[in-house]
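User: I'm putting together a teaching handout on how multi-component assemblies are represented. Below are the sequence lines for each component of a complex, exactly as they appear in our records. Could you produce the 3D structure of the whole assembly as structure tokens, so the students can see both representations side by side? Please keep the chain order the same as the input.
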Amino acid sequence: MKYHLAALLTLIGSFAHADTLPSPSGEIVLTVAGQIEHTNGNGVAAFDRDMLDALTQRTTTATTPWMDGAHDFSGPLGAAILDAVGATGQTLNVIALNDYSAELPAQDLRDYTVIFATQIDGEQLSDRDKGPLFMIYPFDENPELFNEVYFGRSVWQITRIEVSD
Amino acid sequence: MICVGVALIIATAYIFANLRDRQQLIRQSVREDAMWAVFQTHREASRLVDAILVSKIDPSDEAFKKVNLSFDLVYSRISLLDGGFFTEKFNESAELQLDAQSLQFNIREMATKFDALQKKPIKKF
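Assistant: Of course. Below is the structure of the complete assembly, with chains in the same order as your input.
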């Protein structure tokens, strides 16, 4: 009876884990750490490309100061990433491959349809072209965001997010 | 009537002053961004040289990965020189424009070599 109960609890535990955040099977693209409720190892939430693709996606057509003309950026919604990791902190420190980082309010990702673009014009963003993840504010839909404050928050080559108070 | 005329002149002067301030702010912002792009490119290029030197001393997989990553970061900065708002700033100086074009050419040449190297197995001595 004890064994059955233990097996049942283990099974329930594994389902609960699967419901929160599965483990990555491919190369890790993004790591989220800090004040998060859902992790998949070592106190962090690690995402491979398939896991990011499984989140709610959006395509944003935007003009940015770093590229000529408008482009179609696609990727998971920032709010979907926050939900997936169960972020409880109010501040995000978004860190790039070269250790550049920008601090921004987590609320930005709730107030605006910010995406972490994995693709530009249907092509996967490479490290050489602001990949693997490029934070895109909806500049075209919200012209009031087209200023230095949000340019500074639009980190590219994102590899890590730290959530804090 | 005179009062209305004076009020209109003052309002027009105020609008022009505001426009001039705004244009100056935008110019200053673009200049700062261009400087930032150049600074970042220089910093990433220095890191690449450092990574190459380290890989020569210790030719490990980890060291080669770091060289590749450093190169990708330099490449991504180079693309800033011919796209977006920065181009306008660089185009103001013919000398700067030539330097930027030469830099882009050299980095793109290096990219083909890096890509070819990645397809070959790494020889360890």
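A couple of points students might notice: Chain B touches chain A through 17 residues (CB under 8 Å). The helical segments of chain B are 2-57, 61-78, 85-90, 94-119.
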